[in-house]
Amino acid sequence: MRTAVYCVSKNGYETCLKIRNNVYKNLHIYVSQRVANMLNLESENVENLFVINERVPILLEKTFDKYDLHIFVAATGAVVRIIEGKFKSKDTDPAVITVDDHANFVISLLSGHLGGANEECRKIADGIGAIPVITTASDVGGKIAVDTLSQKIKAKLESLDDAKRVTSLIVNGENVSIHLPKNIVENDKNCAGAIIVSNRKNIEISKIIPKNIILGIGCKRNTPKEKIIEKINYVMETQNLEMDSIKKAASAWVKSDEIGLLEAMTELNIPIEFFEKEKILEVENLVEERSEFVKNQIGVYGVSEPCAYLASSKKGSFLVKKVKLGEVTISIFEEEIYFE
């Protein structure tokens, strides 16, 4: 987690050091020029220390989207004014936490659930011996919010509005079920459907999309991006899988300069990882349908299957071992979903 802390007082700087020493070893510390002069910090060559030579709101124009977590050792009211206009949406905003000047309280201020501010608030408080202050209704009531649930399994919410409505039911004491029917599928598997038994006319439903699909991709030289995107969409559709569930793609080292493949991944916003021959050979036993042609060309019996496996957590199973679609070959590995 990329983390920055800001302080404008001598006591605040001591708190910054305490946070770095006990919680975030790679913490970036931003200190006002006045404090830097007072403590002669610029001559000490402190690692990852930045002296603020401008107003903090102006500085935040450059840093707000650069970090995942911002910690302000300052009054909460002052921080509210400082970050005004910087935040956009709870699914994209970084987490913001305030700590008082004497490190008595750590307050989760912005992006408590999806941004992780609530969890980091507890972590910081534990590390510096302070009291965590968390005010989100679900946490205060000892209940879990839908967006917290999605974060814990590293998934994506299909709709923030749906999540708010269902979380509201949870907060207000309504019964909300998570559907993993034991008589239909195993508890650790994804559901394609659910049976809901209820006498309620209107039932709020929120869908969470886990990012647990790994695509292994092989393609002929000079395959255009349009063709690759078409085949990926086709395979995901036929497997009844959400495109947003794709965590990453993987291929062989010889495809690292394949323009069409790289452009397709960029357009689909899917990160791709390339594996060297030695790594593929280590798991070549996974390749059930071996290609002598591929072996003669690059020295391995297959690309999509072993690369999908190598890029995964290794915990899960193949939904598609290998499907040939003209110039493109695709394998799909589904990782197990787990709670942290």
TrEMBL record:
Which positions fall inside the Cobalamin synthesis G N-terminal domain?
60-139
Gene3D superfamilies per record: 3.40.50.11220, CobE/GbiG C-terminal domain
> Hydrolase as a keyword?
yes
Keywords in UniProt for this one? Hydrolase
| Record GO terms (molecular function) | cobalt-precorrin-5A acetaldehyde-lyase activity
**Glycoprotein among keywords:** no
Where would I find the CobE/GbiG C-terminal domain in this sequence?
213-332
Give its E.C. classification number.
Answer: 3.7.1.12
Q: Which residues form the Cobalamin biosynthesis central region domain?
A: 144-201
Kindly list any coiled-coil regions of this protein: none
A single GO BP term for this record reads:
cobalamin biosynthetic process
- Kindly report, in one word, the top-level EC class recorded for this enzyme: hydrolase
Taxonomy, superkingdom: Bacteria
Pfam families the record matches: CbiG_C (PF01890), CbiG_mid (PF11761), CbiG_N (PF11760)
| Xref: InterPro entries | CbiG_hydrolase, CbiG_mid, CbiG_N, CobE/GbiG_C, CobE/GbiG_C_sf, GbiG_N_sf
List, alphabetically, the PANTHER family matched. COBALT-PRECORRIN-5A HYDROLASE
Query: What's this protein's name?
Result: Cobalt-precorrin 5A hydrolase
